[in-house]
Amino acid sequence: MSQVQYFKAKEIAEGSYLIQYAFTDKENTCCYLVIGQDRAIVIDTMNGYGHLRAFCETLTDKPLYLVNTHFHFDHCAGNFDFDACWMHHRDIADYYDSRISTPEQMAERVKKEAFPELVDQIEASDMTAFTHHIPVYPLYDGDLLDLGDRTIEVVWVGGHTAGSVAFIDKKTRIAYTGDCCNCNTLLGFGNSLPVETYLKNLLHFHKFEDQFDIMYGGHEVQPPTLIEEGIELAARILAGTDDKAEEPGFFGTQTYGAKHSTFPLREDGKTFNMTYNPERRFEKAPEPRVINFQKRTRF
Ligand SMILES: [Zn+2]
User: Fold this and answer.
1) pTM
2) Which CATH number is 1-139's, of 3.10.290.10, 3.90.70.10, 3.30.300.30, 3.60.15.10?
3) 117 Cα: distance to centroid of ligand 1 (angstroms)
4) What pLDDT digit, counting tens, does each position of 17-53 carry?
5) Among the listed residues 160, 225, 233, 230, the one whose alpha carbon sits nearest the alpha carbon of residue 202
6) Distance from the alpha carbon of residue 72 to the mean position of ligand 1, in angstroms
């Protein structure tokens, strides 16, 4: 294993850390460590570069437990250094079905992004390798994560993925929001929920707005007022009065509810924006799942 420092941490409140990659300035992915009196939780594990668990153990000697805001690889790929994880029950099947990279593939990706002086030191053994699945325990809306001196509430904000959640720490007045509500909220994936359901979930999330002053997400930090902007835009999309802006994105052409001036800035000066599938704005009666007993995982 090399001596490359993969992580850096910033204390955002007492015993609460924002963790980012230190080998590059091209990554905006982040995760969090919240230390309670009896135990600590790690919220998401980013892309699996480096060994996050070992890094967190330099910040606390409390027992560490892992929770995920949703199943996407840039929030879960570093899970495999932990003994178990907890995530919303509606994301668990997709989590098991996610593609997992080899340590060699991850090291190649890191080399492309790393500061030039580090490139030769990056090794595959620095990456969090998948060897076997760790147990995944379900979370439900309203669950309370017990840290000893306080609890952190799980709030279901499904939309981006069916099981996206926010974790609200009333003590520090922080909501950890993953990708559930930000300036580029993506609802165009197969696993995303209809805009109608997302709007209901934003209205649910909004009820907690007086419990936090800031939203620390998986890629950005936003004020709680962003939820109201999200409610407004989702309602416009359902009414058919949004901008329906077709723009190129990671996965081909995407439809945004609000037009950008220069991405991610909105033409009208507001901040929240979202993509959606125009065919999946409204809820439909669920199709029965067909179980064919084939192995779902890709490895
Ligand atoms: Zn995501």
Assistant:
1) 0.96
2) 3.60.15.10
3) 31
4) 999 999 999 989 999 999 999 999 999 999 999 999 9
5) 230
6) 5
